[in-house]
Amino acid sequence: MLDRPQLSIGDLVRARRPGLTFPAGLYNRADVFEADLDVFFHRQWIFAGFEADVPEPGDVAAIDVGGSSALIARGDDGIVRAFRNVCRHRGARLLPHGKHTVGKLVCPYHQWTYELDGDLIHADHMGTDFDRSCRGLKPVHLRSVEGLLFLCLAEEAPEDFADLVAEMTPRLAPFDLRNAKIAFEETIVEHGNWKLTMENNRECYHCAGSHPELNVSFVVQDFGFDPDQLSEAERAEVAAYQANNARHMAEWEGRGLVSHACDHLAGHVTNFRTQRLVIQGEGESQTLDTRAASRKLLGAMTEPKSGDLHFWTHHSWHHYMADHAIAIRALPLGPDLTAVHTKWLVHKDAVEGVDYDLTRLTEVWRATNAQDADLVALTQAGVKDIGYEPGPYSRFTEGFLDGFATWYTERMIAAGY
């Protein structure tokens, strides 16, 4: 076989055509993976977790993002801050990925010691002229949006994150997530590129044949349909669906629950979308019987039938219901490996076995995540195949995928690729 010259990343990006999936190299190449980390995970705001991950002074969450790492710490003053997970002596990692409870941040290499506000307070054998005040931990941009924690590893963070803050603050406020707790969390590793993980999440074209547990609570028309292929009976169903949506929207908005769709996608630096969706069946929660999983509702919620506040960013997706919340974050581990981390939240005073059953709370999305992992692996195998060529998105059910690909292309070009 003759050696063929490899296209540059910029050439690959510009080779992507509207309405089609990405060229294979954007899913498979190691240099593209490194570029993606730089552009989409080091320069963008990323969803890191919740204030509930660090509920007490001394609680620290370390999050690894590619070769970089950040610490989110609640100080003795109750303030949550973020720092580079890098000792200011010789660069050792202070804590491994995960959650910890500490009195001080102590480097395991030479025991340089930092307060939870980042100040260096102990460094042996550095001489009387050593100025500790210049060697505190490097801060990382951190914002709490009603208890959701976002961080940015860049020196200058995207300013249009203010749009997300303004849009999501009133939507999230009724859930009072600062007074929620993590009931359960787990990480699975998908054998696929992070963009395939996100493409899979951005459409429900596949849901009917893949997600029996989730379909119980999902309204099928929410995810698109070809109007030219509808029978008369299906047209009547769509009309009923639209009337039902309008009725619920008016009722929710009348209760002060912001519910209309907001798209902040292609054409923006920060990518997010939100909308409150009707829950099928009993209309209370994403459970197998569509009834609330927790008897103790979140925050100021008083009515279980309050829909599903759906929210996504470029690498996470969220469902906020009256009784519990689900947040899922995807972080790339390699060109064809992605860590998918899911958290389930309930009211901080809800008692397992009394107010909620953990299996019932988690079974729908644990099943859905496992099913999605299989689908992503199937797609990764295909995009590695010599027979792969970019295929067409459905304009009726996969429009958000085309938008995501457009946004990706815009951001890569803006970054100089």
Give the helix proportion (percent range).
25-40%
- Strands, count: 17
> Could you give the order of the helices and strands?
HHHEEEEEEEEEEHEHHHHEEEEEEHH
Name the average pLDDT: 96
Strand order of the largest sheet: 11-17-16-15-14-13-12
Shape: globular
Report the sheet with the most strands, covering strand number, pairing sense and barrel closure. Answer: 7 strands, antiparallel
* The CATH homologous superfamily of the largest domain: Naphthalene 1,2-dioxygenase Alpha Subunit, Chain A, domain 1
Distance between the termini: 29 Å
Instruction: Name the structural class.
Output: alpha+beta
CATH topology of the largest domain: Naphthalene 1,2-dioxygenase Alpha Subunit, Chain A, domain 1
What would you say the CATH architecture of the largest domain is?
Answer: Alpha-Beta Complex
Q: What can you see in these coordinates?
A:
The model has no long low-confidence stretch (mean pLDDT 96). The protein is globular. The strands form 4 sheets. A 7-stranded antiparallel beta sheet has the order 11-17-16-15-14-13-12, sandwiched between helices. It starts with 8 loop residues before the first helix and ends with a helix. Helices cover 28% and strands 23% of the residues. α5 packs across α9. This is Aromatic ring-hydroxylating dioxygenase subunit alpha. One of its GO terms (molecular function) is 2 iron, 2 sulfur cluster binding.
